[in-house]
Write a structure and sequence with these properties.
Number of strands: 31
Radius of gyration: 27 Å
CATH topology of the largest domain: Neuraminidase
Structural class: mainly beta
Number of domains: 2
CATH architecture of the largest domain: 6 Propeller
Shape: globular
Low-confidence stretches: 7-26, 361-417
Largest sheet: 8 strands, mixed
Mean pLDDT: 75
């Protein structure tokens, strides 16, 4: 009898502990609630409650919650616009921290973003199982894309590169396949003006950069002679020069950058030796070298140069299906593998603080925006993962925020901001 009593007590203790454990697990999950207001809506420039359809076109609301490092913790929605509010649930204890940011976007019935806004890195969840009120998030109109046809005559625009001067002037170079020429279009005079830069079955794979005074430099492939060429309007008129006419098939997939001293750096593919080549005029004359002589490397290169004259190149290793990164150390190139998860290529630029930023794309048409911190090594911080195809174009604003444009699975040009 006494033994049975002990067993019963032990059983009750086990049940109680299990109940406590389950209760603690439940209380460790937090939620975040918020309200929504609009600012700058048609007919209501001041703060106003969110309205559905009509002049705003809003149909649904979506939410992303980021931690202090920029990683997405949780997502929410889509909620019907009429709800005027929302709640993100399932925030686990491991995700709860200081300096979180809530980002809201609204979409119309076709799925296009209409308004967006965020709380900044101001949110904190310090108590497990808490239900936190994030307050009211103010949404402003999302900048819409304006699409203009600059040249609709023949087969044009397949290869293009774009740059903007410090005054806001836009320059774009592109290949005119119908006439086998390289063209440049700019709105420098207030209207779009189109001009031929070079002719004679040239202009494939152009890459453009502007110097501090707005002078334009374009690297490109001379298909007729299988050479790398450079065109510039530095003298006031377009002048084309052959940079590499070594006899190999060189100049495809070129990428150009300018450093703090105004010197040019060009990476490009040698299709004969299947290697990554590099040309620069840092000594005031053009010097050509091989960056990576390993078999079948160097396609889809993207180059960037910092104000301190450091040179970085991201490129594709065809043999291993890897993304590689090369940095000039003053006397030699250091080559590092960055990503080996599938066939990966990238677009590279330099952040304001001098660190490289990458947009990666693999053969499965999956784009991943990533910042790689040189002092911390790779792979760095992954920001997003979305469907896409073709080569993504990356740009960083003065405050370091990334924007890139890519083709989605349906062939539609999209921007990720």
């Amino acid at each position: 009898m006494k033994r049975s009593a002990y067993l019963l007590i032990i059983l009750l203790v086990v049940i109680a502990l299990t109940a406590c454990s389950n209760s603690g697990s439940s209380s460790g999950t937090s939620s975040l609630s918020f309200g929504i207001m609009l600012k700058g809506a048609p007919g209501a420039p001041s703060l106003a409650p969110i309205t559905c359809g009509g002049t705003t076109g809003i149909s649904t609301v979506e939410a992303l919650l980021y931690d202090r490092n920029g990683n997405i913790i949780r997502t929410g929605g889509p909620w019907p616009c009429a709800d005027h509010q929302g709640t993100i649930t399932g925030i686990t204890a491991s995700n709860q921290n200081y300096s979180m940011k809530l980002v809201l976007t609204t979409r119309d019935s076709a799925g296009y973003i209409k308004y967006s806004g965020d709380t900044g890195n101001t949110l904190s969840i310090t108590t497990a199982g808490a239900n936190v009120d994030a307050g009211t998030v103010i949404l402003t109109p999302f900048m819409a894309w304006s699409i203009n046809t600059l040249n609709g005559s023949g087969s044009v625009g397949k290869h293009s590169s774009i740059a903007t001067s410090s005054t806001g002037t836009v320059y774009m170079v592109y290949s005119d396949a119908t006439n086998s020429v390289l063209r440049c279009v700019t709105n420098r005079t207030g209207v779009w003006v189109d001009a031929v830069i070079d002719s004679g079955n040239v202009g494939q794979f152009p890459s453009m950069v502007l110097d501090a005074t707005g002078k334009t430099y374009v690297s490109y492939y001379d298909f007729a002679n299988k050479d790398l060429k450079l065109a510039t309007n530095a003298t006031g008129t377009w002048v084309a020069t052959t940079i590499d006419n070594s006899g190999n098939d060189v100049g495809q997939e070129s990428s150009i950058a300018i450093d703090g001293a105004g010197k040019l750096h060009i990476s490009y593919y040698d299709a004969t030796s299947k290697t990554l080549k590099y040309a620069t005029n840092v000594t005031d004359s053009w010097v050509i070298s091989t960056v990576d002589a390993n078999p079948d490397t160097g396609k889809y290169s993207s180059i960037a140069a910092t104000a301190a004259n450091n040179v970085h190149i991201a490129y594709y290793d065809v043999t291993n299906g890897n993304l590689n990164y090369a940095k000039w150390g003053g006397t030699s190139w250091t080559v590092l593998p960055v990503d080996s998860t599938g066939d990966v290529r990238a677009e590279l630029c330099v952040c304001p603080e001098g660190k490289p930023g990458l947009v990666l794309i693999d053969r499965g048409y999956k784009i991943r925006a990533r910042f790689a911190l040189l002092n911390d090594g790779f792979p760095g911080m992954e920001l997003m993962d979305t469907r896409g195809r073709s080569r993504a174009r990356l740009n960083l604003s003065a405050d370091g925020n990334p924007t890139f444009v890519f083709l989605d699975g349906n062939g539609i040009t999209r921007a990720a901001v």
